[in-house]
Amino acid sequence: MSYNTAMKIAITGKGGVGKTTLSAVLSHLFAADGKKVIAVDADPDANLASAFGVSPADVAKIKPIAEMTWLIEERTGAKPGSAGGMFKLNPRVDDIPAEYGYRFDNIVLLVTGKSKEAASGCYCPENVFLRRLLKHLIAERDEVVIVDMEAGIEHLTRGTAEAVDAFIVVVEPGQRSIQTANTVKEMAKSLGVKDVLVVANKIRGNEDITFIKGGLGGMKFIGHISFNNLIMEADIKGIPPYKSSPDTVEEIRKIKNAIEHILDEK
């Protein structure tokens, strides 16, 4: 199977492991190949825009979809915060990237956010709307879609998870990070995801790679990103990693190539 056009990648991991850096650089690399990319910030602690180097002034203008209460009510027929009532389970979402995305460099950035009123997994208009949007982006679009997710994957439905081409867990040297990866693996398996790929970040040497590989429990290791002070300095200065650390970009390019190779073999 050839993935010359659309590819759907979900990236998760414990907070602070570097999944947002991976998401941003992968988005740039696919865009540089001439592909249209939709980058989705599905982490409530949204900072993908900053990793792209979007100015603080423009970041402030990007409103998370979950906070567009008027839009959710218009599309579902019910006010956010309500539960148990009647509302549309299949609201229109196909126009969301074009209408509400932030565009730059052949990339559309969407920030989904998280409802402040709704509990996680509640059967309410805002969660239904966000899940429908995520399913549309992953299962029905013909662009490359890269989703920067939170540590858990509870907000994915079975149909959405099965449509993901590459499910990646970013880990760093440490027991808690490995534990999170194994938890994600079990959750993904329950949703029909067969393969969970692992990227190691903040690597200081071969000992770190050996440690991480020893705790993967059958997950496939596809590459690593070295610890690099330039990434930390870029974050402080608001410069995107794609433009600040050539070595990091090259390491992530190898990861991108590994993903494409694995998927072409399927």
Structure in words:
The protein has an eight-stranded mixed beta sheet, sandwiched between helices. It has a single domain, classed as P-loop containing nucleotide triphosphate hydrolases (Rossmann fold), CATH 3.40.50.300. With 266 residues, it is of the alpha/beta class. The protein has helices at 19-32, 48-51, 56-61, 69-76, 96-100, 125-139, 158-163, 175-190, 206-214, 229-237, 241-244, 246-264, and strands at 7-12, 37-41, 102-104, 107-111, 144-148, 166-171, 196-203, 220-226.
Number of helices: 12
Question: How far is the N terminus from the C terminus?
Answer: 6 Å
Sheet bearing the most strands, described?
8 strands, mixed
- The average pLDDT score comes to 89
Rg for CA atoms: 18 Å
Give helix and strand order, one letter per element, not per position.
Answer: EHEHHHHEEHEHEHEHEHHH
Give the strand content: 15-25%
- State the share of residues found in helices, binned by percent: 40-55%
- Broad structural category: alpha/beta
How many runs of DSSP E, i.e. beta strands? 8
Number of domains: 1
CATH architecture: 3-Layer(aba) Sandwich
List the keywords.
alpha/beta, Rossmann fold, 43% helix, 266 residues
Quick overview:
The chain has 266 residues and is an alpha/beta fold. The protein is built from twelve helices and eight strands.
